[in-house]
Amino acid sequence: MSTPCSCLQEMTIRRLTNNIPHISYYPLAWFFLIGAVLPIPFYYLARRRPRSFWRYVHMPIILISSASVPPANGVNLSSWILTGFVFQWFMRRYHFRWWMRYNYLLASGLEAGVVLGLIIVFFAVQLPHGGYNVNWWGNQVWKDTADAKLIPLRTLAPGETFGPATWS
Amino acid sequence: MPISVGAAYDNTGAMYNLSAILTNNEFDQAKYEQYSPMFLPITYAVTYGTFFAAYPAIVVHTFLWYRRDIVHQFRRSLRDETDIHAHLMRKYPEAPRWWFIALGLIAFVVGIIAIEICHIGLPIWAYVLSVVFALLFIVPFGIVQATTNQVFYVSVLAELLIGYILPGHPIATMFFRSIASDTVFQALTYAGDLKFGHYMKVPQRLIFVSQVGASLISLASAIAAQRWALANIPDICSPTQKDFFTCPNLRVFSTSATIWGSIGPRRFFSPGAL
């Protein structure tokens, strides 16, 4: 049965499959141009209204932090955002003197705390008797996500391939 | 392919097996055509995009917001500053500019000698290029780091660049990337230390001498430790080493160098690639 509809479908499928050899990461090269242009509008908005929200838009930071995503994921960024929000926005806005006095010390304290915690965990928990395992929800929950289990959207049958048929 | 992993895949959905396309650590076209093109999970691919966007964004942002400051600061010296730190630090003699220039020249020449003696396949012009490349990015990266405490690396752009210029040389790619990114990193660390010394009232000449001395000591001890480890730990850096000396960091480093130095950015990002 050859209705116009199925013909159209077939054409679409054929066009899609014909296009597959042309898939490449080439569009990513456009990001160079995008990156060069992105800071410009925010700069002019901030110049036009110096006290507005726009002066806080810092494009390099947005791009740099999103560049850490594949090893990092939502959890890593959310604790970061939480800390930044509490101390750089809430404390700075409502307890400015505290922030002025202690924020630098807080940064050093957090950093030293991480290192001390690392040392204690390594020597007290991981090293003795081949290491103790602490199993509770907070340690296990991330392992149950599709992200951690590396589950693909669609699993290929053995021997099946995707992508272009030829390449060089 | 999973959605968010920092690893490359082949066209059967398995992790990309780099050794399947290498002969004697050099890229083998026939093996590559037989095996598979390389595919990146979507977030990894987009990450490359954000890296690409970040470099021009940093340069443009710095130019827009700080161009006057940069010109201004190059014309000023410590004598013109009026704050208390600068006032107190004026007691000490500045480390003369020629100390820095001489140190830079010595390091540069030592670099050339090392490249020539060790035959790493990196031409001298590429070495000069990597240093110039690093110099270009020091000021913009320094400003971003100083105002926001976010550290960024030139390594991705350096690898991309050398992958286009010198395709098929993984070792040279590694050196180009290391020289470029370490130059920026060390320069900014030194600037940060100078500032710390400024606040802590350490004389400038003392900072210079102690930094150079500490660098030499750490260089010697790092090489000694590395030689000892390579000679005395069996199977070091193999994934099955029994005491877990598996070198995950170095493996990522060498993998990315092999990708950009062998398959090369041309096969990824040029029009009509794959």
Question: How does this structure look, described?
Answer:
The complex is a heterodimer of chains A (168) and B (274). Chain A has helices at residues 4-19, 30-37, 39-48, 59-66, 74-94, 96-126, 137-140. By secondary structure, chain A is mainly α. Chain A is flat. Chain B is mostly helical. Helix content of chain B is 68%, strand content 1%. A two-stranded antiparallel sheet of chain B has the order 1-2. In chain B, helix 2 (42-75) packs across helix 5, helix 5 packs parallel to helix 7 (170-200) and helix 7 (170-200) packs across helix 9 (248-263). The radius of gyration of chain B is 22 Å and the shape is globular. The relative contact order of chain B is 0.11. The model of chain B has no long low-confidence stretch (mean pLDDT 82). Chains A and B meet through helix 2, helix 3 and helix 4 of A and helix 1, helix 2 and helix 10 of B.
Features:
heterodimer, A: 168 residues, mainly alpha, 58% helix, flat, disordered N terminus, B: 274 residues, two-stranded antiparallel ribbon, 10 helices, 68% helix
Mean of residue pLDDT values of chain A = 76
Written as H for each helix and E for each strand, in order along the chain, the element string of chain A is HHHHHHH
Strand content of chain B: under 5%
Count of separate DSSP helical elements of chain A: 7
User: Can you give the mean pLDDT of chain B?
Assistant: 82
Assign the structural class of chain B, choosing from mainly alpha, mainly beta, alpha/beta, alpha+beta, or little secondary structure. mainly alpha
- Note the overall shape of chain A: flat
